[in-house]
Each structure stands twice: as structure tokens, then as C-alpha cells.
Design a protein that fits this description.
It contains three helices and 40 strands. It is mostly beta strands.
């Protein structure tokens, strides 16, 4: 531990041995026992963590005054999630103030059930297995821990506060951990962690990015806001497909207005809901798929009008991210009445330094001014309210200038964090984390999954695998006894971005007749096929087994 203002090291604490598969929670008061007698404790510490194990660290803030728990896990190495495991899930012992719910998102290509393994976080011992109900394709299931305990017969001991829950079924799925702070009604996403070591890059995803449950406006107490940040150099739109999270049935498709380079646009869920057909009954939650013409990031923010609270629920199927040198949708002082923003500037280097921050208008990406911080101690941090930045620069935000984008500029090697104080209830929320948008979508490409696209022998079509591990289906009539050559061409011959394409040829009942790939030029796929009878056949295009690639390609049948 170090004093975050001066950078002075105050003490070093070593944890007890942590068994494999377990998750240890330690209050700061325990770590402070390692401080020398008489040490004056500062308001804030900066901390350096060294570990003998692989795993994760999570920073949780508890406010005894109002009984709230929030997740402030942002680190110099970035942020992460483990989509198949969530630790420190609350047992029902904590239901008096902080009941936990697990959101299970089906990221596969068909509906199905799955199983969850329930483990004691204190020692990693398995306590039981929970079989879920069926989860629709592109849908979600929200299961309270109370439901899991009742179904599995688990009765926590008096000190069994936390579980580790692991996805152990064959269904492709991701997990999210939500905690309801009952005293103030704030939902907190407790999924995000910091990794010990390098954060694994997310898998390739071309045009689908499945966030956790999106709250519809049918829930008057909680409503979702969607934010899209364009980090590229060209303008573009984001398309949001909304489905009923319970049934998986698609309800609407909405395309955002054009988002300028450097801009970070925010839309209430009521805006995408304008694309719902008249008379549509809004579900409690939407599952969504994103397609984009821009490179950048997505953020899901939950607002509760009843008590005026704002929380960050940005967890997606491909993980979470942060931009250490950039923050989006930082509140201008127009929002200081209820949600004042502060910037935490951390200097992990070995020398004191200042940081230069570029202040940009989130509406259009236009630079407003540059702010230079006071000196930040080596290993220290500086917390700067946005009101102080506006005052120093003489910025008076326009009436609709609610948000800034803030970037480090120059040689500063530290990182930024964005904190919002929900003044009505005193909850501090970390608004730093985001989800990376999928790779840009070529808008001319039609989705050929799960509905097949039709094609004719003798033609060439452009196609797209939209999600890691995904498929595209083509139905066509072939003549019995005729020899056909089928070519799938991608990245190796500059016919798209898909690497190592692979294919399955099936009859009208989807029974596989032939499969393979790699027989063409480089890593392209080629098959020759002679049908025994005239009829309808399907060519299913995917990536080579186990590669789980996504991307664009051309398919030709001659």
C-alpha cells in the first residue's frame, strides 16, 4: 500500500494461502494491519499487487452508511471477465441487503439447457449442480441464488457468504453476476475483474456482440441507455437488433444516426423501441445483437428514475474492456445536480509527472481544450472533479453538452478511471469499463443463419460469418450425376477476411454428405461433389474446426 497523494509506500501485506478454485475476500482493515504502528492512514491508497497464482483481483466498495456495494475494478493492465465463471456470488445469507442473480446468455446457435456448478468460494469445494431451464438462441435466463439453493438443496453455513459458479454444460453461454442493493434499489454488475498478468484478447466477432439483459421501458423503475463510441476516422452507424430475452424471438431492428469520429453517442432504450411494430408488448428485458459500420466501444448504463441512480452494466459475450488513456461520456457540470463525474489519473511509473488531458465534446468529437494536471507522485493518483477542469479552462457547457470524451495526450504512461457519484443515494459507480464493438460489418452482406440464403449453380456470392464459431447456409438446386466444384475464398486470396474456411454439403434434410476445406489456393476451401439425384442441397460455410474465426468470404458453385 502507498499513499495515493505522495506515492510513499506505507506497508506490505501478504494474504494467507488461497486454495485452488477458491476466492478470498479481504476488507481493507485486514490489509491495514500490516502498516507500522502509528501510521496515519490517508483517504486513498494506491496498491501494487504481486501474485504466486493465476487468477483475478476485484475491488469492491462498501458503504456502511447506506448499505451499498459497488464494483470499482479498473487496473493498469485493463479489465477482464471470465465468461464461464463468476466468483464471490452472494449466498442467501446476504439476501437481507445484497441478493445475487446470475444472468446466463445463450451465445450458441440453438436453444437448450445447461448446467451450473456451485462451489464454496472459501475452499473451492463443489456443493452441487444446477440444471437450468431451456434458454432460447440469443436469449437470456436470470436465476436468483435463492432459486439455485432451493433447487440444489444447498443450505449455506453461518459463514458461507460466497459461491463460485461455473458454467459446466455443453451449451455455448456466458455468465454475468448482478447484485441488487436493496436499501437503495441499485443494480450493480459484479462480473468485471482485473487479471493477474496479461488480459486475453477477445475472440473474433464480426457483427454480433451480445450484452447482458437490456432493460426495456416496460420496466418503469429501471431503463437502459446505450452508448456507442467511434474511435475510427470515418463516420458510421450501429444497428441494434432486439429480441425478447425470454423467448429469443426477434422484435425489431434499429439503426442509429450517423456517429462522427471521436464522438460518443448516448441513446435511451426508448429510442430503439421506436422501431417496434405498433402494438408490440415490451418484454421486461431484451437480448440484443450489434452490427456496426464503426470501430469503437459500447457501454450499457442503467438508470433508475425513482431514486436517480446510474450504474454501469457493461458486460458482453466477448468480455469487457477499458481504454487506459481514454474515457467516454464523462459528465459535464450540467449533470452535477445528481451525477457529478470525477477523473482518477494514476501514475504507476517511478517518477513524479504531470498529465495532459484533451477535453472533447462527446456529441461530435471536436476538441474543446487541453488540461494539465498538478504533479502526480510516482505510484500515486490524482482525483479531479470535472467541475475543477471546467473552471480551470473556462468551459461553460452548452445546454445539451452533457458528456465529454477525455484522453491523455503526450508522453504520460499512466491510466484513467471515471467515477460517478450518485448524489441521491451516495453510491459511487465506476463508469470506466466498456465492451469492444464487433469488427465493422459490410452492410451489403446478408445474414444466412439460421435462415438459409438461396443461390444458383454457376454464380458467385459474397458472404459473412458473423460470429466466432458461426455459420452461413446456402440452399440451391443441383442436378443428379453432374460434377460440381465448390470454392470458398477468404483472406488468403484477398476475397474477404475469413481465414481457413471450411464447408459441409448436406441434403434437403440437412444430413451431411461431404465436408472439408483447405483444398484450394492457400487456406481457401474447395470440394468437388456429384449428387446422386436432382434436388435441393445446402452448403454450410464455417471456419476450420477449433479455429472459431469470423469474417467475410466469397462462395462459388460451378
Amino acid at each position: 500500500l502507498a499513499n495515493s497523494t505522495t506515492g510513499q509506500t506505507l506497508g506490505t501485506w501478504n494474504s494467507p494461502s488461497i486454495p485452488a478454485g477458491s476466492a478470498l475476500q479481504v476488507p481493507i482493515t485486514t490489509i491495514e494491519t500490516a502498516l507500522p504502528a502509528g501510521t496515519a492512514t490517508p483517504q486513498y491508497y494506491s496498491a501494487a499487487v504481486q501474485s504466486q497464482m493465476t487468477g483475478y483481483i476485484q475491488h469492491v466498495l462498501y458503504r456502511p452508511a447506506d448499505g451499498t456495494l459497488t464494483n470499482l475494478s479498473t487496473c493498469d493492465s485493463g479489465v477482464a471477465i471470465n465468461t464461464t465463471q463468476v466468483a464471490n456470488v452472494h449466498s442467501t445469507i446476504l439476501d437481507f441487503g445484497f441478493p445475487s442473480t446470475i444472468a446466463i446468455t445463450n451465445t450458441g446457435f440453438s436453444s437448450g439447457t445447461t448446467t451450473l456448478g456451485i462451489y464454496d468460494s472459501s475452499n473451492g469445494v463443489k456443493l452441487g449442480t444446477y440444471p437450468t431451464a431451456s434458454i432460447p438462441r440469443d436469449g437470456q435466463l436470470l436465476v436468483s441464488v435463492a432459486t439455485i439453493e432451493a433447487a440444489t438443496g444447498i443450505k449455506p453455513t453461518a459463514v458461507q457468504y460466497h459461491y463460485t459458479i461455473k458454467h459446466e454444460g455443453t451449451l455455448s453461454a456466458s455468465l454475468q453476476h448482478l447484485v441488487n442493493n436493496l436499501s437503495v434499489g441499485v443494480n450493480t454488475d459484479m462480473t468485471t475483474v482485473c487479471a493477474f498478468g496479461t488480459v486475453t484478447a477477445p475472440p473474433s466477432t464480426v457483427a454480433i456482440n451480445q450484452p447482458g439483459p437490456i432493460f426495456s421501458s416496460g420496466q418503469s423503475a429501471s431503463q437502459s441507455f446505450l452508448r456507442f463510441y467511434n474511435t475510427g476516422t470515418t463516420s458510421g452507424t450501429v444497428n441494434v437488433t432486439m429480441a425478447n430475452s425470454t423467448t429469443g424471438s426477434q422484435l425489431a431492428s434499429w439503426t442509429s444516426p450517423t456517429i462522427a469520429p471521436g464522438a460518443s453517442a448516448q441513446y435511451p432504450i426508448t429510442t430503439p423501441e421506436t422501431s417496434l411494430a405498433a402494438g408490440t408488448t415490451k418484454p421486461s428485458y431484451y437480448s440484443t445483437a450489434l452490427q456496426t459500420q464503426i470501430t469503437g466501444y459500447f457501454q450499457h448504463v442503467l438508470y433508475r428514475p425513482a431514486d436517480g441512480t446510474l450504474t454501469n452494466l457493461s458486460t458482453c459475450d466477448i468480455g469487457v474492456a477499458s481504454l487506459p488513456t481514454q474515457l467516454i461520456n464523462v459528465h459535464s457540470t450540467i449533470l452535477d445536480f445528481g451525477f457529478p463525474s470525477s477523473i482518477v489519473v494514476s501514475n504507476p511509473s517511478s517518477a513524479a509527472t504531470t498529465a495532459t488531458l484533451g477535453i472533447y465534446d462527446a456529441r461530435n468529437g471536436v476538441k474543446i481544450n487541453t488540461y494539465t494536471t498538478a504533479s502526480i507522485a510516482a505510484g500515486g493518483q490524482l482525483i479531479i472533479p470535472i467541475a475543477a477542469i471546467e473552471s480551470a479552462l473556462g468551459i461553460t457547457p452548452a445546454s445539451d453538452m452533457y458528456h465529454y470524451v477525455i484522453k491523455t495526450e503526450g508522453s504520460f504512461t499512466g491510466f484513467l478511471q471515471h467515477l460517478v457519484n450518485n448524489k441521491n443515494v451516495g453510491v459511487v459507480t465506476d463508469m470506466t469499463t466498456m465492451c469492444q464493438l464487433p469488427a465493422t460489418k459490410a452492410v451489403s452482406y446478408t445474414s444466412c443463419w439460421p435462415t438459409s440464403c438461396s443461390m444458383t449453380a454457376g454464380t458467385t456470392l459474397s458472404g459473412q460469418i458473423k460470429k466466432a464459431g458461426g455459420y452461413a447456409n446456402y440452399r440451391l438446386t443441383l442436378t443428379g450425376g453432374q460434377l460440381y466444384t465448390i470454392d470458398i475464398k477468404g483472406a488468403s486470396t484477398s476475397n474477404g477476411t475469413l481465414t481457413k474456411p471450411y464447408m459441409f454439403v448436406s441434403d434437403s434434410n440437412f444430413s451431411t454428405l461431404k465436408f472439408g476445406g483447405g483444398g484450394g489456393t492457400g487456406n481457401d476451401a474447395r470440394l468437388t461433389f456429384t449428387p446422386t439425384a436432382t434436388g435441393t442441397y445446402t452448403i454450410q460455410v464455417t471456419a476450420f474446426v477449433y479455429d472459431n474465426n469470423a469474417g467475410t468470404f466469397t462462395i462459388s458453385v460451378n
